[in-house]
Write a structure and sequence with these properties.
By secondary structure, the protein is an all-beta fold. Helix content is 0%, strand content 60%. It has a single domain, classed as Jelly Rolls. The strands form 2 sheets. Strands 1, 2, 3, 4, 6, 9 and 11 form a 7-stranded antiparallel beta sheet that branches. Strands 5-10-7-8 form a 4-stranded antiparallel beta sheet, with no helix packed on it.
């Protein structure tokens, strides 16, 4: 796997934030010239569930989290530099024990 990027060039940044769980999860969308989309976000301490329409790759930039993909048996812990994939039409539980977890979410085809 390649290194998690520290910046993206030549993108359109959507200024309106995506706000979930009363502001405890916040992201901004980036649209690339080929039409692909990513979000950059922050997750504050807590436990959250997200559903997926498209397959997603979540790359952890900083902090840590525990993740349980729908229809799997165990939670897996992730720290900065790690990533996980979520199937389309699925979902995942994510828990952040402390601090802030920063992530890049890529929507996969």
């Amino acid at each position: 796997m390649s290194a998690i990027p520290s910046e993206f060039r030549n993108v359109t940044a959507v200024t309106k934030a995506n706000v979930y769980f009363e502001g405890k999860v916040v992201s901004h969308s980036l649209v690339f010239s080929d039409g692909s989309k990513k979000t950059l976000g922050l997750i504050y301490p807590g436990n959250y569930h997200f559903g997926t329409e498209k397959a997603e790759r979540m790359e952890i930039i900083s902090g840590s989290c525990g993740v349980k993909i729908d229809n799997t048996a165990n939670q897996v812990d992730y720290t900065a530099g790690n990533c996980f994939d979520v199937p389309a039409h699925s979902g995942f539980d994510i828990s952040v024990p402390s601090g802030i977890c920063e992530y890049i979410c890529s929507f996969l085809d």
